[in-house]
Amino acid sequence: MKLGRLPALVRTTTFRLALVHASIFILFTASLLTYLYFETTGRLDLQAENELNAEFQELSTAYRSGGFDRLNQAVFERSSATGKFFYLLQDADGRRASGDFNMLPISPPESGQVVEVKFNYDARAPGGGEARRSAEGRVSRLSGGGVLMVAYDLAELGEMNRRILAVVVRSALVGLGLSLIGGLVISRSAAQRAESLARLTEDVMGGDLTRRAAVVGSGDEFDRLAIQINAMLSKLERLVVSSRSAGDAIAHDLRSPLTRLRNRLEGALSEGTVEGARDALARSIEEIDDVLGTFNAILRLSRVQAGATGSFRRLNASGVTDELAELYQPVCEEVGLGFSYAYEPELFVQADRDLVAQAMANLMDNAVKYTPEGGAIRLLARRTPRGEVALTVVDSGPGIPEADRERAVERFARLEQSRSKPGSGLGLSLAAAVAEAHHGRLELADGDAGPHGAGLSVSLVLPPA
Amino acid sequence: MRVLVIEDDADAAAFVQRVLQEAGHDADHAADGDAGLNKARTGEYDALVVDRMLPQMDGLTLLKTYRDAGGRAPALFLSALGEVDHRVEGLQAGGDDYLVKPYAPSELVARVEALGRRTPSDGPATRLSAGGLEMDLLARTVHRDGKKIDLQPREFRLLEFLLRHAGQVVTRTMLLEKVWDYHFDPQTNVIDVHVSRLRGKIDKDFDRPLLHTVRGAGYRLEA
Questions:
Q1: Exposed e or buried b per residue across A286-322, where buried means at least 16 C-beta atoms within 10 angstroms of its C-beta
Q2: What is the distance, to the nearest Å, from the Cα of residue A166 to the centroid of all Cα atoms in its chain?
Q3: Using CA atoms, how far apart are residues A419 and A405, in angstroms rounded to an integer?
């Protein structure tokens, strides 16, 4: 089970990143340790060299002050004491006078010369028998003809170097292990969160739109991704629900006119006179046009709600209301309604002109439709105290009771008293959808109270640009 | 007018052809993009009616290719895609007008005839007239039988459009699109109100009316 999951883990991006990270870490550690190694061993070599120099210095002092005998004495004492250095002193004839070795590893240098040597020698091992060891040292011809060699065993230094190397290698291995484990842990937790997101999308594709990604609260990129995905799912869910309810609404709102239409056509078939049939057909066509109008309104509303339409530009909102005022003023006068228009300048918004115009035209249509003769309609374009841009249609009609306002904005919601009026019942819904598409909102309130009721005020509130 | 209808749906094509023929035009038919482009290139047509979605070559590509090759016949797109962005695409591809399915036959005829009017390069006309009604586009004045008529700016544009299409039926939707630049249908009869106001100004004091209502279709300015 665990083994089976490993390859999947290895395939994850985070694991690869962890691996890259580990490699970089190891490369860094290795160079650091290599540097440390050479620096330390170099320092040790230098130290041995300095000690050798000092030893030579002391012996040559002895030679200068007491001649060969004094030197012989000093070498004898030093070689019998346990110390770092090994010695060999030969007299002018090449015979061994004192020291640890029996013979020189090289032929003795000319007088006054100092020669560095590196050689192997056999020494008695602690457990008996002989072991080959290596040493490094210096050979010098004495002014009186003798030869002095001072050497030190490399084994000790080598041992030191080996130990350092061992430490370095072990640290590198531990570092490698740690960084790999760290990488695995990190990539596993990342992979698990990615995996849970993948499972979530699977569930959603399976049809469960209510599922949401877990937000840990760490604020990292996974959390941000989860929050985004959740927002997307909420929107999707809303759209699906609204299209479902649109489906219901279509069934509800189109079925009855279609049924009426069918009956009328059937009646036309059995109509006795040509005129009668013609008349029935003409009315049928009108009815079809109504159905198509409703259908188009549904489609348009769906597209606006899905955010699939509109070209948003910075524009002056009062430009839109100017045109609407001009368009509707004669209409109001025609049906015996008062009309007034007031606007503030420079109401800039980021908006689609056609959508805003349509939303406002719907509000004007509603106001004209529901305000009884003798009433008045006001169109306002102004800035709210919070700096937003509000385009408002106020009428003096019956208004909508506060309890019904939310429902009035829903698709196809036509309040009981309005059932008899023509229209698709989508006007307010479309205005609300347009508001949402602009990150604004639709506000319903009491309008101008009058003999017919509290009046209605509908505002399309848009964020300023 | 000789009109080429490029439409793959045989029923829809037959309907368009019949509607145009009943209105007194010759209507030829091509059933796919390639055939349509080849026929259009013969240069025998006064106007093209192009469905947006066609087999072989879609309507937008067809018209772009046709225009790039120097084709000048005005074109009307027919499409089930009716959002503003779709219209803009259609106009950018070289279309002169855009009609969303489903449409009323009268709307189609009115728009095709409006297209035909454009073909002769009228040039930048400075005066428009019909039956004693004179419009000076530079001075922005209107006279009828020598008598000055005062118009609001929007009424002026409305009359200008009617004059440019004098003798043709213009629909309410056309007026809303071309005069007000709105691509939706207000439910109230806003256009009727504006037209009747204009009529009050240009026809009221004269014996012979110029601005006629065409029942079930729209309006016609005719001397």
A1: ebeebbebbebbbebbbbbbeeebbeeeebbbbbbbe
A2: 43
A3: 16
- pLDDT of A350 > 90? The answer is yes
**Helices A154-205 & A13-80 angle (0-180, nearest 10):** 170
Please count the CA atoms within 13 angstroms of the CA of B214 that sit on its side-chain side.
Answer: 16
Which has the closest alpha carbon to A96: A61, A132, A146? A146
Query: In the predicted model, is pLDDT for residue A5 greater than 60?
Result: no
pLDDT-derived band of residue A389, with 50, 70 and 90 as boundaries?
very high
Counting as low any pLDDT under 50, the low residues of chain B are 119-121
Q: What does the alpha-carbon distance between residue A366 and residue A393 come to, in Å, rounded to a whole number?
A: 10
Q: What SS3 state is found at A12?
A: coil
* Neighbour count for residue A252 (Cβ, 10 Å): 11
CA dist., res. B114 & res. B119, Å (int): 10
CA distances from residue B5 to A66, A437, B54 in whole angstroms, order as listed: 129, 38, 12
Contacts of residue B152 in chain A, CB cutoff 8 Å?
326
Q: Which residue has the higher pLDDT, A104 or A226?
A: A226
What pLDDT does A1 receive? 44
Closest CA to B159 of B116, B96, B76, B219: B219
Are A180 and A22 in contact by the 8 Å Cβ rule? The answer is: yes
Tell me what pLDDT residue B220 has. Answer: 92
pLDDT of A159 strictly over 60: yes
Cβ–Cβ under 8 Å, residues A349 and A311 = no
Q: How confident is the model at residue A126, as a pLDDT?
A: 59
Given a cut of 50, whether residue A139 has pLDDT beyond it is: yes
Predicted confidence at residue B120, as pLDDT, reads: 47
Cα A449 to Cα A342: distance, rounded to the nearest angstrom? 19
- Collect all residues of chain B within an 8 Å Cβ-Cβ radius of residue A296: 82
DSSP A26: H
pLDDT category at A129 given cuts 50, 70, 90 is: low
Nearest to B154 among A311, A326, A352 (CB): A326
Longest CA–CA separation in chain A, Å: 158
ipTM of this complex prediction, to 2 decimal places = 0.82
Q: Name the closest residue on chain B to residue A330, using Cα atoms.
A: B193
Min CA distance, A2 vs chain B (Å)? 54
Residues of chain B found within 8 Å of residue A293, distances taken between Cβ atoms: 185
DSSP string covering A248-269: HHHHHHHHHHHHHHHHHHHHHH
Do A459 and A442 contact (CB within 8 A), yes or no? Answer: yes
Mean pLDDT of A227-235: 87
Chain segment B17-41, per-residue pLDDT in tens: 999 999 899 999 999 888 999 999 9
- Which strands sit side by side in the sheet containing A147-153, from one edge to the other? A96-99, A85-90, A147-153, A130-141, A114-124
For A308, half-sphere exposure in the C-beta direction (CA atoms, 13 angstrom radius) is: 12
Element (H, E) at A66: helix A13-80
Min Cα distance B29 → chain A (Å) is 27
Task: Tell me whether residues B187 and A303 touch, CB distance under 8 A.
Answer: no
Tell me the two tokens of residue A115: 């020669």
Q: What is the mean pLDDT of chain A?
A: 82
Q: B147 by DSSP, 3-state: which?
A: strand
